[in-house]
Every structure is written in structure tokens, then in C-alpha cells.
Amino acid sequence: MVVEIGQRSETVRRANLSAIVRELHARDPLSRSELVVRTGLTRSAIRGLVGELTAAGFVSEVRPAPLGTPGRPSPLVSLNPDSVVALVLEIAVDSLSAAVVGLNGRILELIRVDRPAGHVSVEDIVGDLVELATVVRARRPAGDREIGIGVAVVGVVRRIDGLVSMAPNLGWRDVPLGEQLARAFGSDVPIYVANEADLGALAEVRRGAARGADHVLFIWGEVGVGGGLIIDGRPFTGVAGYAGEVGHLPVNPAGAACRCGSVGCWETEIGAGALLRRAGHPTGGGRAEVDAVLAEAAAGAPVALGALEETGRWIGFGIAGLVNVFNPRLVVLGGLLGRMYPFIRGILETGLERHALPAPRRIVRIVPATLGVDAPLLGAGELAFEPLLADPARWLRRGDTLTDRATA
Amino acid sequence: MVVEIGQRSETVRRANLSAIVRELHARDPLSRSELVVRTGLTRSAIRGLVGELTAAGFVSEVRPAPLGTPGRPSPLVSLNPDSVVALVLEIAVDSLSAAVVGLNGRILELIRVDRPAGHVSVEDIVGDLVELATVVRARRPAGDREIGIGVAVVGVVRRIDGLVSMAPNLGWRDVPLGEQLARAFGSDVPIYVANEADLGALAEVRRGAARGADHVLFIWGEVGVGGGLIIDGRPFTGVAGYAGEVGHLPVNPAGAACRCGSVGCWETEIGAGALLRRAGHPTGGGRAEVDAVLAEAAAGAPVALGALEETGRWIGFGIAGLVNVFNPRLVVLGGLLGRMYPFIRGILETGLERHALPAPRRIVRIVPATLGVDAPLLGAGELAFEPLLADPARWLRRGDTLTDRATA
């Protein structure tokens, strides 16, 4: 019996450590009082566990200067971002990125380079990523403890092994990206590959526009359009991780051919190419041309405004259907869709009014993402840190800690 | 400590009773050996718990005659369907039904009457349902123990109180159906109201075409089209129970006006009205006209076959999008869609080939529902029995059982 009780209390301790590190990871810094409220743990439990985390070098405490209110201010607990880090990589349609994310979930170093949109071999991409990673790691102090590598890619990904089943914008079919990365990085830390829209959604829910929301549909649009669905606070991936391809909802049987082989997919009406076409810009022009259209619209140019309006109508048409199907609390628009939002806000509301059922429409709000272009990288960091957030005690043991090694 | 351990073992016992009753409810009858395999409980635990259920009158055991194989055949355990029953009701576009469902999840008595499609007051509907319920209850032995009332309705339902936010086919907006039923039935048992497609999905997963599948999209089509999504074996309802309205995915901006107020919803291309129109039958003709079209097609009439083909193309177009978004393992077609399935099987496969992404397409299968027109009623029974399935011990206590009343 004693053993059983002992095991149970060790389990409880690990869960409590996890609760504290999760809260800090999402909202760092927090006062001890805020930790009490958010975790439901007693003040003395918080004190003891924060002490363990401090001894392991994961957190620091500072006592803020008194604010003129009575009583001692509660010490502020914050994660040491450098104590454990994640390497994160992104393969976008027209750029590659490498970054180091700290334990507090924020980017410590970032390098992003443009690449010409178009087909490319996985060997070239992986080679470039290794180079970028070398550069970004070199900017960091020696001896970074890397917990894992998170990778965001603009494609349909099988989560279990990082196989990219399809990435039309890269010209990939069944490309074993996870395997190739593991070989190239020769690393003993785990590599997690996922779709960039799914990761953007995860980041927005953990630390962006959808923080704390339970049912969220995240729609990420640049050249391609993807989506991530959060149900009860957790990412919904479907049977094999392919769910969320909202860009390939058929919305227009009389529409244009889509890179995916179908016709009239939503992406053909709301992606960057559609906006550029309607604005009279070269459709393969990339980020610079899109920036130009938005600048023209901001200056009041009728053609650009008309292009945004027409694109906004299509965005609203599709969102209405997704609201009918998912009944979400929040729709978050990321990437180019988020940048278009200020121009099309009214059109989206009209579109919902016309095309969504009243009941789910009354509940839902549409908001732009707040993490901008970094959302997929931040989401990749979330993937890499997940094992540590779930059970920080496993990592405490590696450091110089108060943890009883015998219970390991 | 002893108390705590005692409580724990009572919790375990209740969970084990639940596992046994759930298995029997879904697959009755089962041998004791099958129960061992399905629940993971020991043979002696099964013997004890089945004994309790037998004493309470919930189950019976019979020892089947030897089959010529060595060893004693394992006793067959089966639920006594009459031990507890549910009253279930359905408000469809052109019919009303009342039925009594037994503890084994099967229909014991059923009455279904046609009603003219069109707008109707909730008072009239509730009045008719009370009458039907009286008739169907009168066919049962006196003293039925009714555990609850489950109601399937062709509308968008707020689960928490049975408010029908919208039912265009009935002409309803924000109709407090749950409240009105509670008043009319004056009953002390709980009333559960849900959308008929959601309930059809639940029934198909528990005891039909999707039995045991984890990620299932159920699409139910008659005059209107709805859907139910099962994720990890559980119904997905969205924030407020409105999810799954796949009939109102916009698929054709150049399409017809929809009853919901939008334009080009999927329902306008694949509902009974669209099939009848294409086949040259009166679109308001109801079930008889639909039967006629299917009979003509079965006899090889080109117009009817053409109408099915065109409708099948639209069905495939929409399913492809839903497969891209949900990455389900199984798509189950119910109602008229299931009846059309034999005629459009090839067209659906072609549609998926053209419009769905290869990765989710390789995983998914499309199958017709197996429970037919009774699926929503059976699903309503599932709702009503859920509290009993989750914790049968609470109902055992009401009977003459071995349960320790002190732990109640």
C-alpha cells in the first residue's frame, strides 16, 4: 500500500509541475498568486514546485518593486528562455526559415530567406535548412540544450513519420521529409513535422488571437490556403493528420483549375494568386506584389479595393459554410487573410449574414491572427516542447535538481 | 485510507458494469467469453457482475446447445429488452414517428404517420406526438420502466435545452421544442432533443454501417441534407450543438436559392427536390415521387438514370471537400443518399478521384447506411440510454440487487 500511495503522490507531483510549466510557457511571467489561481494548487505547493524548477535552472523569481498598494507584492516567476530551446524550421511557398525558440515559447533567433516559388527537390530544401540552422545556432551561446526540432511545411503531412503526402506548391508527392531531415541533422533529438496551417492554429490558440478558446477554426492563406481546427482546446488532425485542408473545399464548379488537380477549390478564389489577378498584378509575383496591392488599397486605389472586395466575398462565402459545419466560437484569419482583414471586415460580416445559418452565426466571431508570419514557427516550437510541458520532471532529472532520482 | 481504497474499488466496479452493459447494448447477445475479450475483465469478474445484472432483471443467460466442438460452450448473455425502455420520437419533413426502444437498443414498437410537408406550428406537432406516444405505449405491457424520451428533429438544435434554432422545412425559428415537450408529456424523465442527422450518425456508429469506426462522417439526405461527425468514437457537436450542417456548405455561387436564405447550398443540388427536378417529377412530390424515380432508374429509364448521375456528381463534389477537411475513415450515406448509392457508386468514386486530395482519399471509404429510415429513432434511443450505459449501478439500485445501498 505504501508503495502505491507513494507512486500516486509522485504522479500528482509530476502533473502539478506540468501545470505550472504549461502556464508559464503560455503566459510567462506570472506572479505566484496568478499561478495559484490558474493551477488551483495551494500557495505552499506552488512555492515548493517553483523551488524545484528554480534549482533546475528552468525558472527565476524576482520580487517586483511595491506598487503603492498595501501588502508585499507576489514574486514574479518567469521561465529562463535559454534553459531549454527548440530548433524550428519552416518550408513556405516562397521562403525558408530557421529559428531558435526558448522555453517561454518565444523566438530567440530567427533567419528567413526568400526562395523562388516553384518546384524544388527535397534534397535541396533539406540542404538549405541545414545551412540556415547552422547560421541561426551559431548566433546562440554555446551549449544550448535542444529539446527537439519542429518543422512547418506547406503540405499535407502524415504526422507519425513526417511523410509529405502532397505539397503541390513544392511539387512534392509522398516525400519522406521527416526521414531526410533526421538523416541530414544526424540528431538524437526528436523531429516533428506538421502542416504550417495546423501549426499556426496551435500557436494562435496557445499564445495568440485564440488564446484560451475551445473551438477554433484557423484559416491560413498565402499562395495556398490551409486550416487548423481546435476542438476542446486540442488540435483536430483527422484519421492520419490530413484534416483541415479547407483550401480544397470545392466552392465553384465553374472555377479555375487548382494545383491539387481539382477545379474551383476555395484556394483558387481566395489565395494570393486570385487577389493579384483581380488587382491586375502578375499572379506569380510573390510577397512583393501582394504588398503592393495592399499598399494601393490603403491609398484608396479603386482597382485594388475592388480586388479585395471580390476576394473578401469569396472568403465570406467559404467561411459561412465552415461555420455551418463546425459551429466554432472563433474563426482566426492568418497570413495574407489576416492582412486583408482590415479591408474586408464589413464584407465578411455581410457574407456570414447571407450564407451562414443564424444559430452558429450568432455565436462565432471572426478575428485576424495576432502572431503574424511567425505563427507556424511558433507552432512548431509548441510541438517540440510538448513532451517537456507534459512531464517536466523527466527533464528536471537531467539537471542538478532536488528531484528524488530513485523515483525516476 | 481504507475508505479511500473502498471508494476506489466501488468506482472500478461501476465502470466495469458500464463496460459490460455498453457491450451488450451494442452487440447483444454476447457469450461470457466474448465479454472477457471485449471488456478486458477477468472471467470471474464477468461472472460476478453479470450475476448482479441478472439479479436486477437486466440480463438473462442461456447456455447454448453444444456445437460439436470440445469443451462446454460459454453461456450467452443477453439484455432483457423490456427491463428498461426509452420512448423515442421523430419529427421528419414529411412524417412523424413514435417508438419504444428496448435496453438492447432495438425498436420494440413503432408507429409512423405521413404528414404533409410544409410549415406547421410546434403546438400541432407536439399534440400529434403526444397522441402517437399514447398509441405506441398502449401496445406495450403495462408498467414499462421508461428511462427517458429521445427526440429527433429535422432542424438545428441547441442540445442543452432542445431549442430548435432553425428548421426551414417546418418553418421554425427559435422554437422551444424541448420546453413544450416537457410540458406536454408532464413527465419526470429527461427529454433529449437533437438533430436527426446527428442521431442517425450516432446510431450508425453504435450499431450500423460505421460500428467501431473512430472517425466517421455521416451524411443524411432526404428533402434536407444534414450531417453528423464522429471523432474518436464520440459525436462532435461544435460549441453549441449546431455543427454538422453539411447541407449548407455553399458549393455553387450560380446555384438556386436555399430555404436557409443562402444561395447554392449543397442541399439545393443533392436533396430530394434536386433529384425530382432533374428527373422531371414534381419537386414537392414527397416520398412517393422519389420512390418512382428510383423505380424508373432500376428499370433502366434514361431520364431517371441521368438525374441520378447528375445528382451523384454533385454528391461526389461535396464529399470530396468534406474528405479534405475532415480526413475521415468512413463516409456513411443515409436516407435518400443511401438509397441512391447503388446507382451512383461509380460516379462517387470518380468524383473523389477528381476532387479529393490523394492522401485522405486513399484512406476513406464511402458506404451506405444500414439502419435505413429508423436510424434517427435508434439514435434518439442511444441518447436516452446514455446515462444508464455510463453508470448502470444507479439503476441497479432501484431494483432488487446485490448492490450495497450504503455506497449509493
The gist of it:
Chain A is α/β, with parallel strands linked by helices and 408 residues long. Chain A is built from 14 helices and 16 strands. In chain A, the strands form four sheets. In chain A, strands 6-5-4-7-11 form a five-stranded mixed beta sheet, sandwiched between helices.
Could you explain the architecture of this structure?
The structure is a homodimer of 408-residue chains. With 408 residues, chain A is of the alpha/beta class. Chain A folds into three domains: 2-80, Winged helix-like DNA-binding domain superfamily/Winged helix DNA-binding domain (Arc Repressor Mutant, subunit A, Orthogonal Bundle), CATH 1.10.10.10; 85-195 and 377-389, Nucleotidyltransferase, domain 5, CATH 3.30.420; 209-370, 2-Layer Sandwich (Nucleotidyltransferase, domain 5). Chain A has helices at 2-27, 32-39, 43-55, 122-138, 177-185, 196-207, 266-270, 272-278, 286-298, 302-326, 336-355, 358-363, 375-390, 393-396; strands spanning 30-31, 59-62, 76-79, 85-91, 95-102, 107-114, 146-153, 156-158, 163-167, 172-176, 191-195, 216-221, 225-231, 234-236, 330-335, 365-368. In chain A, the strands form four sheets. In chain A, strands 6-5-4-7-11 form a five-stranded mixed beta sheet, with helices on both faces. Chain A has a five-stranded mixed beta sheet with strand order 14-13-12-15-16, sandwiched between helices. In chain A, strands 1-3-2 form a three-stranded antiparallel beta sheet. In chain A, strand 4 (85-91) and strand 5 (95-102) form a beta hairpin. The longest helix of chain A has 26 residues, at 2-27. Mean pLDDT of chain A is 89; it is low at 1-5 and 399-408.
